[in-house]
Amino acid sequence: MSHPASSERTRIKICGLTREDDIDAAVDAGADAVGFVMYAKSRRYVSVQRAAELARRLPPFVTPVLLFVNEAPEVVQQACAQVPGCIVQFHGDETPQQCHAATDNGRLAYIRAARIPLDDSPFDLVRFAADFAAAKGILLDAHVDGFGGSGKTFNWSRLSANVQPGSPAPVAALRHLVLSGGLSPANVGDGIAQVRPRCKTLAVDVSSGVELDGPGNQGIKDPEKINRFVAAVRAADVLLAKSTHGLRSPNLSTT
Question: CA distances (Å), 87 to each of 34, 44, 106, in order?
Fold first, then answer.
């Protein structure tokens, strides 16, 4: 099987990890990053001490990501100090100024989640990315009640490259997107096919879609589902690399 170029390779984050076995399963499957939920109201919450303990199992070049929701800057900084090499993911109502302060005046890398409406309500993604131009990338998730990850899929067809080349709008953050919200081994390939042509690099972020079935299993990952998810991502990458229709634009908005 041929392999796509590095710029065409979709990065993979497995989020909401709570157990050593799940860390090992994500690493063995080839995940690029693992996520720890620092939001106490989430059913996948882990303490900073637990996140640090789990992160110590990671080999080099697998990145720990700490997910926060409207947390105080000093709490974010203290947590990051205990998880070396981590990236911060802001998933609440944080302003650009708050993100800057929480990341030690920009010293720490961060990703900002954009909550895309499930209905036809307008959302100016270009303006959002311009406001968070310091972010390493923009994570696209569905807007539902509550925070910390929706588990819902928004309408990917709402994303359209409608900013003309040469536009003065600052859209650098939109070059690197993370697709999230309701992803699973069954639908991630379609999501990649729809969103990848609209950015320079794409990552996918999955949590509930690779968990054991049944109530009470939030945060308990299924190694078989993780492997199927990774395989589906890699298959989508190969198909897109062969396609002649993958024209890209770094400019993205919702209509």
Answer: 10, 18, 12
